[in-house]
Amino acid sequence: MPRHSSILTWTLLSICSFTTQAQTVYTGDGTFYSPSVGLGSCGQQYQDTDLVAALAEVSMQAYNPGNPNNNPLCGYKVNVWNNANPSTTVTVAIVDTCPGCQGQYDLDLSPAAFNQLADPSVGRIQISWEFAETVSLTTGPFAGAVPGERVAINQKVISNPEVAESRDEL
After folding, report:
1. 99, 102, 120, 154 - which has most CB atoms within 10 Å?
2. What phi, psi does 134 have (nearest 5°)?
3. How far apart are CA 80 and CA 62, in angstroms?
4. pLDDT tens digit string along 115-133?
5. What residue ranges in the chain does DSSP mark as E strands?
């Protein structure tokens, strides 16, 4: 192979090289609540049928900019699974704060999300979760979590199109 072809190949390989990072998995308790009783700390109201969650207050407070509606964690999607049955997984969006959650990585799930992981009569399960998208935060407990990209929560987690349409009108 001519020398200039080798240099070109080496240059292209250098440009196209990728760095991968291992995902961070968080473990905590999974419970459920009704997001339909009022506005969540992220400033929106959701239905029990939406795939949403409230993150432990200690984690949400680590990023509180003063107005919880502007918390940068709002809208991030996470993949959650039941540790007793890891094949049961659900993807939810963080839309609220869980003041009753004791562990830093506990999630309070909507009934629709919890039902995909366990029977509601159980009430509390051991869960693990990871971000379903890259976290663009540079400080705090979730700095640099990978992979994916941020999405608009109104377009991705609302199961009722009429609810989504009414939110778009606000």
Report:
1. 154
2. -65, 135
3. 21
4. 999 999 999 999 999 998 8
5. 26-32, 52-56, 77-82, 85-98, 107-109, 125-131
